Amino acid sequence: MTKRERVMAALHGEPVDRIPIAFWMHNFATENSAGGLAAETLRLLDVFDWDFLKPQSRAQCFAEMWGLTYTPSGQRAVPYTVTHAPLAGASDVAALKAVDPRQGALGEQLEALRAIRTRAGDVPIIWTVFAPMMVLPFLLRGGREQALGLLRTDPAAVERGLGAIGETLTEYARACLEAGADGLFYATNVATKALMDPAACRRFQRPFDLPILGAVEGAPFTLMHVCGEATLFEEFADYPVTAFSWAVAPGNPSLAEGRRRTGRAVVGGLPAKPGIASMTPRAIKERAAAAVTEMDGRWLLLGPDCSINPDTPDDLMRAARAALGAR
Q1: 105, 113, 115, 322 - which has most CB atoms within 10 Å?
Q2: Where in the chain does DSSP place strands (E)?
Q3: Shortest CA distance to 11 belongs to which of 297, 302, 265?
Q4: For 173-187, what is each residue's pLDDT tens digit?
Q5: What is the pTM of this model?
Q6: CATH architecture observed for domain 3-323
Q7: Where do the structural domains in the chain lie, given as residue ranges?
């Protein structure tokens, strides 16, 4: 099978010659320009021959559209440093306006995507978009704690701000498909039982997520990533996506249970940061084989629970490929 045939068959639960696989990780030294992101993504494709690509856009790029600034890192495994978070409080959140996603930091991401698509041929690409509720903490000087506090003290201001972010990202999602993506890697990291209850999730996630996903609903490969332990998984089970990704961690479903609950393919089965750093090649192979067995070789694309350590040894990723019989 070609990579595209293999991936699309797996997404639809059809027989495959082997399970498709990919890993993704930040490289904090190279992700700060379109050229750097494209070159690092293509390097990983050349080295590991992944079946699909999830290019690792820098996490702060969405917040940069509303004034976040940072000092880049010159080291692969050392994160950036924020120099300015633009929002002080609820009034600033409420005053947010939609912006043009084809300009600025997101325009740069689209430039990287076009370059990757040109070089990657027909390899499926899913492009990262954060949920508006995940973007908001990047903008506030008090970070996640302040953002979650505003859900209780100034919910109307939060809704106005999320609306502006969501309008921007809805247009960005359309632009991603135009630039060559096969769909989105759509992520949230605040929908956990420790951070919000189901009612808050329905108020501050769902109304702002669905227009973005609706803009790409016809795309062949859009993945919903619900990050963290004890997630509010059921709140996302009916989202219009082709696959789901989450950590097999306390309070979360198994791969097979997630497939049963959603009716969609699952992307996962492999460890993420920080746990992968302490694993052996043999343990990685066993984890991959266990995931394939659990899913009976269907409806599965092997990938990490979340991104992996930037300095993960190559032999660990090669071991996961070898477990599938991939050369």
Answers
A1: 113
A2: 69-71, 81-84, 126-130, 183-188, 223-226, 243-246, 265-270, 300-304
A3: 265
A4: 999 999 999 999 999
A5: 0.96
A6: Alpha-Beta Barrel (3.20)
A7: 3-323
